[in-house]
Design brief:
about 120 residues, mainly alpha, about 70% helix, about 0% strand, elongated
Length: about 120
């Protein structure tokens, strides 16, 4: 038994029956929360005439489970290619959607939730 488990057992033994029930319920809550599947994306369809910046907002809302920091550079590069180099909006949004979907697949694979 680990030192933490021994400490927890001693603490549990020192509690009154009602507090033991509370501690057991809290432990069950923590175990269930840890085993909960990762959030699934709520992908909304691209609205007619959507701009690139609106697409970025929509995708960030669709994939709230993704860390934003790793997305900053590739999203910034795509937005820059659209705004500075004239890349067509539809093509840029297609690339953004593919980027977010790929990042979600990586997130699921890293969390043990899928391929």
């Amino acid at each position: 038994m680990s030192p933490e488990a021994r400490t927890l057992a001693r603490t549990f033994d020192a509690l009154a029956p009602r507090e033991r029930e509370t501690l057991a319920a809290f432990a069950a809550f923590l175990a269930a929360r840890a085993a909960a599947p990762p959030l699934a994306p709520v992908v909304t369809l691209r609205p007619e005439g959507e701009g690139v910046l609106q697409a970025v907002r929509r995708l960030k809302q669709s994939y709230p489970m993704l860390a934003r920091r790793p997305l900053m550079q590739p999203v910034g590069a795509l937005v820059s290619a659209h705004m500075l180099d004239g890349r067509p909006a539809a093509e840029t949004i297609d690339a953004l959607e593919a980027l977010f979907a790929a990042c979600y697949r990586e997130h699921m694979a890293a969390s043990g939730g899928g391929p």
